[in-house]
Amino acid sequence: MTWTIAPEPYDSPVAAALWRAYYTEVSDRWYLLHEGRRTDPGELEREIAARTGAELAPPSGQLLVGRYEGEAAGSAGVRLLNAATAELTRVFVSEGMRGKGGAPLLVRAAEEAARALGARQLLLDTRGDLVEARALYARLGYSETEPHNDDKYAEHWFRKDLLN
What we know:
By secondary structure, this protein is an alpha+beta fold. The protein has a single domain (3-161), classed as Gcn5-related N-acetyltransferase (GNAT) (Aminopeptidase), CATH 3.40.630. The chain is built from four helices and seven strands; from the N terminus they run βααβββαβαββ. The chain has helices spanning 13-35, 41-50, 102-116, 131-139; strands spanning 3-7, 61-68, 71-82, 85-93, 121-126, 143-145, 156-161. The protein has a seven-stranded mixed sheet with strand order 1-2-3-4-5-7-6, sandwiched between helices. β4 (85-93), α3 (102-116) and β5 (121-126) form a beta-alpha-beta unit. The protein is globular and about 45 Å long. The two termini are 29 Å apart. InterPro entries: Acyl_CoA_acyltransferase (IPR016181), Bact_Acetyltransf (IPR050832), GNAT_dom (IPR000182). Residues 17-163 form the N-acetyltransferase domain.
């Protein structure tokens, strides 16, 4: 009953499957909350294809995949915004694997990856309806801060110093 976390090419089949699961879930949650429906399948396919994850490739980014008992079950990515600041993104654990301790391990591994890229702080954004994510970040020492981007879906922004 153990997790392993390792770098994964952003364009691997495993990364693509996790990205599809992540994006489908967060998109459907938004549409169900705001419009009472799931994401239009055509829109979903366009958005998944448009966001390749190339920014998570070395040397300025890293995608990590968590495996539980060998099964790909989650992801977290970091990308440098500048020499001292990285962004945490694509933090996701598959629904059936939640509650097994993977999310904090993925975030901590992403923090280490950001440090290895030279970052001294990590930023992220999330939405109000993603209450589980907001609770996780607060538990892991992230503090809510001013907006660092203009993403139309972002409602909460967090920051953590990585100097420790």
